[in-house]
Structure formats: structure tokens, C-alpha cells
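[retry 2/3] NADH-quinone oxidoreductase subunit C: previous attempt timed out, resubmitting with same input.
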Amino acid sequence: MKTVEEIKAAIEAAVPGAGVTILPNGSPSAQHSLLLDTEHAFAVAKFLRDDPELSLDFLSNVTGVDWLDKEVVEKVKVTKQVPKEVDGVQTMVDETVEETRKHVEPGYLEAVYHLFSMKKKYGPVVLRMRTKNRTDEVELPSFTPVWRAGEYQEREVFDLYGIVFKGHPDLRRILMWDGFKDHPMRKDYVEPDDFEYEPTAHDKVLQRHKEHMAKIEAEQGTAGATA
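[retry 2/3] NADH-quinone oxidoreductase subunit C: success.
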């Protein structure tokens, strides 16, 4: 099996301009990933499948990851004018001081693909792609035209995370119903208070159903009293 470094080099030689970054995995599995730029990702996928040395002919798994906005705190050294007494005279001098600065790095959504070669008997090779943000630029190229096994799995990632896979032949919800709003696997997803039709009798759900119905009955009672 080729190393990720060798695969990265092969991609860059075969697909001019392709951006490939190795994301190390420090766990015992050491399954390092290759982060692809979205512009060249589809061409890279076809190369990985068709190259006789790599022959990554099987897509076993597609999943999504939601990365929230992150506050970054860093120490920086800056030069400032500060008052200082020099030879008995108060004057302004340059002095290097350390400041703490904060900024927010926007979050993004990530699609992760696990590839194997049935022909060469190795894998997985892990690919990742990232959207520009979590709001209005959530498109990624679909790999389903390259590996048909991605069809349902990309639909699932679209349904639960909201990643829009451009080029997918049939991108629509697969677990939630068509009129459902939002994406339930996002970290900031808020469950709707709509438990009146929930048929599940698990204790936790049943309790929420009771609380929901009590609230509705109270509201209706208030409305009736007002009328």
C-alpha cells in the first residue's frame, strides 16, 4: 500500500494545480487524511479510481462533520509608544509589548470518504472536502458519478448536515421527509417542540410529549378565557 505522502505526490503529478493537504491522525490507527481542494476534487477522484497503481475502486463510507465557528486567542508582539523617563526627562519611546488578540475563524462542513482497492487489496484511503462556511456556501462536488456507492450516502449527508453535492444525480432527503426544515446532525440543531404526534413510548420522549401537550392545553385555556 502506498503511503499518503506517495498518493499525494501521485495526485499532484497527474492533476496539475490540485491542492492536496495531508491531515495527520495522531491516534493509534494513524489513518491520515488527504484534504482536497474543491476545484480539482472531481478530477482527483477519477484519477484515484482509474490509475492502475492505485485502483481505488470501492467507496465504502461517506460521512459528514460539522465544525462550528472557533474563537482563536493568540499572543502577538507589537511596538508601541510608551512614556518613559530617560536621563531624568519624561519622553515617549518605542517599546515592544505583548498583546492578546482574539478572532473568530468561521466554521465549515466537511465530507469524509473512505476508499479501498478491491483489486490491490488495501485501504482505507481517507479523503476530505470542506465547504467555505456553514451558511450559504455549502456546495461540494459529488463523487457519486465516480463511485456509485456514494449515491445514498451523499444524500444522507445532505439530509443530516446540509452539504449540497453538485453533480449528484438525485440529491434529495433520504431520512427526513421532504417538508422537513433544518439538518438534525448539525451541532447547533434545535429540536422542534412538535411532540403531539410522536408515537414512541420511550420515557424521555413520553415526558416531552406530556410537557408539550400541557403547554398547548394551557394556551388553549388562556385563549378560551380571553374570548
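[retry 2/3] NADH-quinone oxidoreductase subunit C: The mean pLDDT is 91.
[retry 2/3] clearing retry counter.
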